[in-house]
Amino acid sequence: RMWHYTEGIENFAPVWDKHAIRILPGPSSLWFDATGKRLPVPLWPGFDTLGTLEHIMSTGYDYSWFVLTQKIIEKEFALSGSEQNPDLTGKDLKLLAQRLGKGAPAPVEAFKEKGVDFIVRDTLDELLEEMAARSGYVPFDAQTVRAEVRAHDRAITNDFGKDAQLNMVRQARHYKGDKIIRVASPHQFQDPSAGPLIAVKLNILTRKSLGGIHTDLDGRVLDPSGAPIPGLYAAGEATGFGGGGVHGYRALEGTFLGGCLFSGRNAGRSSSTL
Ligand SMILES: Cc1cc2nc3c(=O)[nH]c(=O)nc-3n(C[C@H](O)[C@H](O)[C@H](O)COP(=O)(O)OP(=O)(O)OC[C@H]3O[C@@H](n4cnc5c(N)ncnc54)[C@H](O)[C@@H]3O)c2cc1C
Asked: Were both Cys, which of 8, 116, 189, 196 would link to 20 (CB 3.0–4.6 Å)?
C-alpha cells in the first residue's frame, strides 16, 4: 500500500532526482480532469485525497488541472516541504507574519514564475489555448472548461446559487481563522482585478508506503498466524502509517503523530503489565 497525493508539481529546484512538491490547496480552485471535465462533488481541493485519486485514475489520464486566480493563489496555496516553509522551519516570526500580508508567499510565487506546471494568462481564452497546447495527445475540451468558469462566475452574484463548491467556500468563511488566512473571498474568475488567471497541471505524487509490523490494539506484535509473539511490542510508524492506521485508511492529514503517540501509550501500558 502506498500513499499518493493528487496535487503534485515538478520542483524547479529539486533537492533530489524527480523531486515533486505537493500543493496544500484551499477550497476555491476549480478542478478539472485532463480532458476538461470538472471533478464530481465532493472532490474539491483539499477534501478527499483517496477519492480524488481514484477518480482521476479512472479517467485514463494520470493528471488533472486547477484553474484559479491570482487572488486565490495568494491566500490558498501552501507548499509541502521544510525548504518551502522557511518561516516555520526557521521559527522566523517576521517571515511568518508576511503570510497575512498581500501577495503570495515567496516560495509559492517562485513556483508560479518558474514551475513548468504553471500557466499564467490575462484572459480565459489565452489560458485555455495554452492548456490545450500542453495537453498533447489528450483530447482537452476547452469549451467545457469555459462553460464551467462562466457558470461559476454567474453563481458568484447569486447568494442562493446551487454550486455546491461555492456554497461550501462561503460556509468555510464563517470560521474566522479560515476567512483570515485560508479561504479567498468568492469572486468572479474573469474579474481583471482578481487576475491574472492561473492553470496548474497537477501530477500524481508518491509520498510513502503504508505497511508495517502487524500488531493488536495492545501493541503486541503478531506472527503470520495472528498470534502474539511473547514479549515483543511495536508502536508508531513502524506498525503502519500513523500508528498502525488507527485513524483508518482515509485518515485526515495531520492525524498521524497523534496515532503514533497513542499506539506508543498502549504498547507501554500493555508491556508494563507483563
Ligand atoms: C515531512 C513529514 C511531514 C509530516 N507532517 C505531519 C503532520 O503535519 N501531522 C502529523 O500528525 N503527522 C505528520 N507526519 C507524520 C509524523 O511525523 C510521523 O507519523 C511520526 O513522527 C512518527 O513517529 P514515530 O515515533 O513512529 O517514528 P519516528 O519519529 O520516525 O521515530 C523513529 C525513531 O527511531 C530512530 N531509529 C531508527 N532506527 C533505529 C535504530 N536501529 N536504533 C535506534 N533508533 C533508531 C529514528 O532515528 C527515529 O528517531 C509527517 C511526516 C513527515 C515525514
From this structure: 8
